[in-house]
Amino acid sequence: MKIELTVNEAVRLLNANKALEAHSILEQILRGEPNNVQAHQVFVKFAFKAKDFQLAEKHLKALRKINPYSELYINHLVELYGHQNRWFDVASIYINLAQYQSGNPTILFNCAYYMKLAGKFDEALEYYNKVLKIGINNQYEVCLNIATIYSEHLSKPDKAINILTNAISLYPEQDSLLYNLANVYEQLGNKEKAISTFQAAFDKNPSNYDALARQADMYTIKNKDNNLITKMKDVFHSVEISSSKKVNICYALGKTHDDCGEYSLAFDFYQKANNLDQQTLPQYSQKNHEVYVNKIINTFNKSWFETLKQSVNKAGSNAVYQAPIFICGMFRSGSTLCEQILAGHSQISIGGEQEFFHRSIVNNWTEYPSNVNEYLTSNKVQLLNEYLKEINQFRTNGSQLTDKRPDNFLYLGVIKTLMPQAKIIWTQRTMLDNCLSIFFMRLGASMSYATKLENTIHFYQQQERLMNHWKILFPNDIYEFNYDELIEQPESNIKKLLAFIDLPWEKSCLEFHKVENQVKTASVWQVRQPLYKKSSGRWENYQQSLKSLALI
Questions:
Q1: Contact yes or no for 355/405 (Cβ under 8 A)
Q2: What fold does the segment set 324-548 form as a domain?
Q3: pTM recorded for the entire structure
Q4: What are the sequence ranges of the domains in the chain?
Q5: What pairs with residue 327 in β-bridges?
Q6: Which of 10, 261, 269, 472 could form a disulfide with 25, with the two C-beta atoms 3.0–4.6 Å apart?
Q7: Least confident among 4-13, 151-160, 482-491, 515-524
Q8: Helix and strand tally (H, E) in the chain?
Q9: Cβ–Cβ < 8 Å for 207, 240
Q10: Which CA distances in Å does 260 have to 220, 253, 256, 505?
Q11: pLDDT tens per residue across span 383-403
């Protein structure tokens, strides 16, 4: 009874904003009775309210030792780790539970799901296959997730196609299987199968408006009376369809009216699409992003790399690996085209858009670039080994390998710390062309700047500022590959690009559009064509709209 009253006294003090006194009482209780559930629970409640995640984790772990199978404690810990993007820690909770409940398909599904988020793709496949053997409700979702891993993360589209095709025969009513199969066909450049499969998905479920919208990406529409435009406008004007389901339809209507040369109408639809998209995305803060870029510049400065060089010289280097060629810059700046050109060379393997550094830093280093020295001191070797293991599976031929992730420019300090010899290709494009191209695409929560042109221009300028910092530090390791210069003089610019990475000229690089490979970006159809000039100076079609926003 005495302890109960003392815990109540701690609660009273917390409610009176006397946290230090309350903590002192609770800690005193736990010293005498380490398994006092009520004291731990009060600590957890206070820690969540104060957003003290370290304190919350400490006491939730203590509660789980007392009651390992409590759904309440498990759910709180999952919520805590999820808020911090600590997906491997979430997966570990379910893996621990699976040891005692190996026949529970929901637990096994969660093991797989969070292993995938943690970037442990082989382990995720292992658990998904266990789920398939046991069986689970909505089993087609397991097939979808397995196919996504093979297609998006392991670059094995043929396996994805086989899994989806088999799943469609088992679950013919599921339009999502058809939709994802169409995605894979699109990535492989199989336009006929992509169109017919997107159409099949929409026919199966006329409420799958994304399947309708995606058809607009497949080809250029020259007639504004095209049946596809009519169908999409019917969806757009319907009062029975929620605005959230019209976002991709609006982007697609913007694209089709651009095809028809109706630029004012196209811009209106793009504006509507972005306005709708903003409603569900985090707000972009220009001030916060500038602070973030400043921290990166101030952390990874000349002194940082001079100290690193001295320590390597003193200790000696045992590096026996070859660093990939990193292709980065703004999204929609020509990075996919650059990589596709290199794909035409006999000495280059294509890694594609790798998420390793973005995923690793977002999931495990929430305060990046703060405490960078401490983090890399304890994780440098492991981080490098994990990266090389993940990227080298794409090394199939030749001496060189690419890693194309545009926003890796944010992480070049980490990349050059791990791999000082790494070379970087910085893809560039005229600012207004680049920013409009981004504005015309739906890019997701991690790129919330994309829904407002003024924010996209700001992000573009900050990208330039940071890349110029890297150029000062590594003048011989960064090559500027300009899209507009490329289309004017393709051969001479490609020769310079190849010289930068110490490779001889091969004419096949000019025929990049004939390369049969998987392309997983929005430029999938552009790189299936020879070089063309219509995207250079495209902003001029939208001068009136840009003037109305006071952007020119």
A1: yes
A2: Rossmann fold (3.40.50)
A3: 0.89
A4: 324-548
A5: 404, 425
A6: 10
A7: 515-524
A8: 27, 5
A9: no
A10: 8, 11, 6, 39
A11: 999 999 999 999 988 889 999
